[in-house]
Amino acid sequence: MGHKTTILERNTAPLLHDQGAGIVFGGHSLELLERYNRCQRQVAVRSERRQYLDKEGNIVHTVDADQNMSSWDLTYFLLRANYDGITSPYCDDVPPPDPHHGISVHLHDRTVTVVVEDGDGVCVSWKCTSDPSRTGTLTANRLIGADGPSSFIRSLFTSSVERKYAGYCALRGTVVEHEVSTETHSTFANRFTFYHGPGIQILAYLIPGLHGTVEPGQRLINFVYYTNFPEDSPELNEILTDRNGRRHHITMPPGLIDPSAWKHQQDIARERLPPQFAEVVCKAKRPFVQAVTDVLSPANEFLGGKVVLIGDALAGFRPHTVASTSQAAFDAMNYADYVAGKVGRDEWVRQTMGYARFIQKRGVDMGERSQHQRLSLQEYIRDRDEASVPIRHEEFPEWATAV
């Protein structure tokens, strides 16, 4: 679009690796890559149907449905290749700079500390994450807060908004597909598979493997295992206290989980899950944990539009919606269209806030039904079918789009 952009990344590493998460690519995620990705490679693994297992591992329900599954690592390196020309094993054919694009700058090890209005724009103060004695400032016409569900940018303007724990966690991990039994592999290959039990839900699907490979045999089986941990309970403290004794608040990163705590969860998995799911939970080498939370900003712009929130910074969805990546893509494209004059301000705000409010509520409803209510499998299937309707086909209700 011809604008100069600077990303301030608070992480101390210049590149992020091994984040360990799978992504269900919704329509807006694919649309964003169609618009902006110039790397010539396959970006996802195709799933041909959704299916549900019973406790014994039998398939009891199927729905033909094409979906695209990718990984956090591959998506990240594709975006970096296109944004600031980073070459990696994920994308070694980095496209040359587009002369119609503006200057792109990526600065890691920068934590924003203050944002103040400055004439027609804002002045942003930062400190080095690794050395707080090093500080600096940047001026900009617009500041886009894309700093996640615990957004510092959001907190500067909506201090009363809190990220609240929902009473359960997502235990996550991956296993290389050739490391599982033939039966387990045949269950998960090119399938989006679910199991519901009392107070638990687990799902799994294939994603690209090391360096984004989509070679059969080298892909990863990615699982997300929701299980209840009451707030302040010994069980929650156990799963969020790492091998060094540090208690994490929301996320236990890959590789840090206490072996005895994970052994406890493996034993529970063998008892409570279908054998195929228990196998992948027990074979995961670098599991991680995410406490499920809720957060929603009352607005997506501040200081007369000089500060904007997008993605998780605006609304943190429960992962049942499989919509967080699509939300970020939708918000980014919607804002780009607004800046380019393709949509008016009111329409931009209505669409962005409508998406945020509607899907955030859907996630809360799905999570509460899945984790805290004893329903029939058909009820859970209906929830999943509704959540799988492409957002472009949704008609947001008036309460969601009201400005």
Mean pLDDT: 95
Number of helices: 11
| Strand residues, percent | 25-35%
Give the topology string: H per helix, E per strand.
EEHEEHEEEEEHEHEEEHEHHEEEEHHHH
Name of the CATH class of the domain at 50-67 and 166-292: Alpha Beta
CATH architecture descriptor name of the domain at 50-67 and 166-292: 2-Layer Sandwich
Query: In angstroms, what separates the terminal alpha carbons?
Result: 28 Å
Radius of gyration: 21 Å
Overall geometric form: globular
Structural class: alpha+beta
Helix content: 25-40%
In the CATH hierarchy, the third-tier topology of the domain at 50-67 and 166-292 is known as D-Amino Acid Oxidase, Chain A, domain 2
Number of strands: 18
Low-confidence stretches: none
Describe the sheet with the most strands. 10 strands, mixed
Topology:
Elements: E1 5-8, E2 22-25, H1 27-36, E3 45-53, E4 59-71, H2 72-84, E5 104-107, E6 110-118, E7 121-128, E8 135-140, E9 143-145, H3 152-157, E10 164-176, H4 182-188, E11 191-197, E12 200-207, E13 220-228, H5 234-239, E14 251-252, H6 259-272, H7 275-283, E15 288-296, E16 301-302, E17 307-309, E18 315-316, H8 324-339, H9 345-372, H10 377-387, H11 398-401
Parallel strand pairs: 1-5, 3-11, 9-17
Antiparallel strand pairs: 2-4, 3-4, 6-7, 7-8, 10-13, 10-15, 11-12, 12-13, 14-15, 15-18, 16-17
